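thought: user wants a sequence for this fold. calling inverse folding tool.
action: design(structure=
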């Protein structure tokens, strides 16, 4: 039964709740989406001069889907819909999934098999360890490599100031190219680089590696004439197994095996590792006519 007072209608959400509950403090709901659905169900039966308040109790909430709010979920000045934390509470909402089952291999690296990676149903490019974003395996671990030379072959001019599509060839000297010899052929498509030029940076995946020419090839948008990648520019590479060599780094291969090198003091028992699942937690689908 919906709880109402003289000035408001009240719903509660708690980590131990259920979306089959009515949403009272004694029998709370479990999710924001559950609260939204309860409001939709009861909204037309409420007096138009009451506030509708959703109070979120203390705790952690794992979201299975984003909260999607449409124009029908809005309120009015005299009949507002309010979502808020209980006074003094700091609830935490997560769109990620906790990764469990790590084993420590002979190199003291943690590893675990994650389902749905090999069939590409789940793509992971971030990892959070005890609330902090972990470092995707990279080289160098500190600082940058230096670009020796860069050439561009324009494939599609387009109509903008920068080519719509082009292939860049980035060359290195012997020392800075040494990392590439440790990249397996089946890893190349997943390796990405980040290069910095003035106020901007380019993040791109590799097409191929030419060990004889000490070059990498990448295809995407053409370089910006006003701020191109240049000789001497800073660059780093990430997401290949040989780069996994420092505490706090992680790597996930195509077979779905996740590797993590723990920081000092971390054990599988005292460490919470979460990988993102949802791209966003809340979506607003507005209607200009409702403004």
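)
observation: tool returned 291 residues.
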């Amino acid at each position: 039964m919906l709880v109402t007072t003289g000035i408001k209608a009240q719903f509660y959400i708690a980590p131990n709740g259920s979306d089959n509950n009515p949403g009272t403090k004694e029998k709370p709901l479990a999710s924001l989406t559950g609260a939204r659905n309860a409001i939709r169900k009861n909204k037309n039966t409420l007096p138009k001069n009451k506030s509708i308040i959703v109070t979120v109790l203390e705790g952690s909430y794992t979201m299975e889907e984003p909260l999607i709010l449409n124009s029908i979920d809005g309120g009015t000045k005299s009949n507002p819909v309010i979502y808020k934390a209980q006074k003094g509470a700091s609830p935490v909402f997560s769109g990620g999934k906790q990764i469990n089952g790590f084993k420590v291999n002979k190199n003291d690296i943690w590893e675990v098999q994650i389902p749905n990676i090999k069939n590409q149903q789940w793509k992971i490019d971030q990892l959070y360890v005890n609330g902090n974003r972990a470092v995707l395996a990279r080289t160098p671990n500190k600082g940058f490599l230096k670009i020796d030379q860069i050439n561009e072959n324009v494939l599609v001019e387009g109509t903008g100031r920068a080519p719509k599509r082009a292939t860049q060839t980035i060359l290195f000297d012997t020392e800075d190219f040494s990392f590439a010899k440790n990249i397996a052929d089946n890893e190349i498509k997943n390796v990405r680089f980040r290069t910095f030029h003035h106020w901007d940076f380019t993040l791109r995946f590799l097409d191929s590696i030419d060990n004889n020419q000490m070059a990498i090839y990448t295809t995407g948008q053409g370089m910006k004439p006003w701020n191109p990648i240049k000789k001497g520019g800073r660059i780093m590479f990430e997401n290949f197994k040989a780069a996994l060599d420092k505490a706090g780094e992680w790597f996930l291969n195509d077979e779905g095996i996740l590797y993590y090198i723990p920081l000092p003091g971390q054990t599988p028992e005292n460490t919470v590792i979460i990988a993102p699942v949802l791209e966003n937690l809340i979506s607003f689908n507005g209607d200009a006519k409702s403004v």
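thought: summarizing for user.
answer: Here is the designed sequence. Residues 96-137+244-276 form one domain.
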